[in-house]
Amino acid sequence: MSEVPASAMVLAAGLGKRMRPLTATRPKPLVEVAGKTLLDRAIGTLKAGGVTQLVVNVHYMADRLEAHLNAREKQLDVRISDERELLLETGGGLTKALPLIDADPFLSINADNIWIDGPVGATQLLADRWNPQEMDALLLMVPLARANCHGGPGDFHMDAAGRLSRRKPGRVAPFVYTGFQMLSKRLFEGVAVEPFSMNRLWDRAAAEGRLYGVAHQGLWFDVGTAAAVKETEALLGVL
Known about the structure:
This protein is α/β, with parallel strands linked by helices. The chain has one domain: Spore Coat Polysaccharide Biosynthesis Protein SpsA, Chain A (Alpha-Beta Complex), CATH 3.90.550. It contains six helices and 13 strands. Strand 4, helix 2 and strand 5 form a beta-alpha-beta unit. The protein starts with 6 loop residues before the first strand and ends with a helix.
C-alpha cells in the first residue's frame, strides 16, 4: 500500500444556502446527520486513513467552527485558514491555504458529503492510485447510479486509464465527483489568491491530460440540502 499524505484540507467555509433553514443557526459543516456533524464525519474519514494534519478554512460563523475544532480535535494538528474578510470559493480557498499544508501531494475533502468505506478505504484508494508523473489532480468518483441523494446528470467521463473528461452540455455522464481529491501543489503554481472554483484548475489539468479519477468502492451520500439530510438519515438507518 502507498503512503497516505499526512496533510489534508477540509473545505468548510461555504455559506450553506442550499441547506437552509438548518444553516440559519449554524454553519453547514456543523449540521448533524444521524447524530454526528458533517465536519466530524469528514474528519473521521481522514483520520481513519492516517491523516494527522488538518487545514480547515472558515468564513460563515467562523467562531462556531473554530470552537468546535478546538473542543473535539485534541490529537490532530489543526490549522485555520481564515476567510472571514473574503470568501474565496473552492479554488481560491485551497490556494490561500497552501502555505499551511505541509504535504505535497495533499488531500482535500468537502464538508457536505458522507463516505462509507468499501473493501479499500477512500483515503487509501487515492494514495494507491496516485502517480505524480501522470497527474496533478486525482478525484474520487462514484458511479451516477450509486450517487445517493444526488439529483444531477453526472460530472465526468472516465476512460480505462482513469483520465477524466467533462460531461457535455445536455448529456449525462456516468461518474459524479464525491468531494474528495488528492492534489499536487504544482497545480497551483502561478495562481493568484482570489475567489474562483476548482473547476478552473481541473479544466487546465484535463487539457494537459493530468486530471484523473478513481472509483470509490463504498457508499457515498450527497448531503447538500436540508431534504438530503433526512433522506441520508433514512438510508443510513437501514445499513
